[in-house]
Specification:
alpha/beta; 12% strand; Helicase, Ruva Protein, domain 3; Dna Topoisomerase Vi A Subunit, Chain: A, domain 2; four-stranded parallel β-sheet; 2 domains; homodimer; 8 helices
Chain lengths: 207, 207
């Protein structure tokens, strides 16, 4: 589709450079911006440049942060003896929004995937192992990785590297989602959820 | 969902202010921008401020343009005796991309919709009637409006205002889309397409 203005063309190109936004959607969004007043468009644009200027990865857990260390790592009320290892920043947000976890995090930045050329050195494992070593005894590492081959590989890599340290290693429970009908659950999940069944009394006491 | 950074929060707010973009999608897009290098994010942001700074509505047809009059209106190769009336700038782009139309356009900026409080004075009818009057004899006005009650109201309003002028009024053909199976077409469209049937020879000569 040809546009009557090279500025529209440029804005559509930029919008469509985001994954999941096609050129038709991009055009719709750009025309919406055209209709807004100038101050509002400036606020829109500046929010992205501000973001890039001010945001850091937390030097401890690699979560996104406005400061050198993030709000979670510097919060004295968080349980310092628990580190939940996740792949992505979005996983931190998802777990935080449950309000059921009061420990710290470690964001790997991805998962080991030889097919995509991602090895352990491309992720933040090194810094994770340093954190584990520095803590010493009494640390629990909770693996919140995805239930895929790559997630399992990453989990096994962590296991191999910390199995000699006095760290408790656990993994988030896999099972049938709350509110999901058994007949629609996939076989692997259902199989795991039978194998890893919990005592009934325990399931009652959980939130 | 709580974000670990107020800059993320602000950028997500801005992104989610676009219609059709929810907060989860907005977050995904913002995190994609965070991962890009600074120059690329600046290019992204600047494309929208540039847009707002440089773009005009063409003073003649109300299409978007980099100049006071748009590329189509100023193109001497376009047929000046044909004006296609459309509701939206996107309709111009859609018709342009067919490459079957060589006349001019007039963008109404919407359609008459009393339910939404949009009357004729909120749209560019006045300027359209001035163009029609200024041209005089030999002009063809093609109505490319949507086949809805509002589109029909707008079409009728135009008809009422120019019926005494020596202007030929036509409307784009409604019918079964090319490649569409009859059984899946809605009844109204199918009915109209039978009523407005074209001679077979004519249908062959069309592109």
């Amino acid at each position: 589709m040809q546009h009557s203005s090279k500025f529209i063309e440029a804005a559509v190109d930029q919008m469509a450079s985001l994954s999941g936004i096609g050129r038709k959607t991009a055009l719709r969004l750009v025309l919406e911006l055209v209709k807004r007043d100038k101050e509002r468009v400036e606020r829109f644009a500046n929010s992205f440049t501000d973001l890039k200027e001010h945001i850091h990865f937390c030097e401890s857990c690699y979560n996104l942060s406005d400061e050198i260390r993030c709000r979670i790592c510097t919060n004295p009320n968080r349980d310092q003896s628990m580190i939940c290892v996740v792949e992505d920043i979005r996983d931190v947000m998802a777990i935080e929004s449950t309000q059921h976890y009061k420990g710290l995090y470690h964001v790997l930045g991805g998962r080991i995937s030889p097919m995509d050329g991602i090895g352990p050195d491309d992720l933040t494992f090194g810094s994770l192992f340093k954190r584990v070593q520095a803590f010493g005894e009494g640390l629990e590492l909770i693996l919140g990785l995805s239930a895929t081959m790559e997630g399992d590989t990453s989990a096994f890599y962590i296991y191999q590297n910390i199995k000699d340290s006095p760290t408790k290693l656990s993994t988030i429970a896999r099972g049938i989602g709350v509110g999901t009908e058994l007949e629609y659950a996939d076989e692997v999940t259902l199989g795991r959820s039978i194998m890893n069944r919990t005592p009934f009394e325990l399931s009652l006491s959980r939130p």
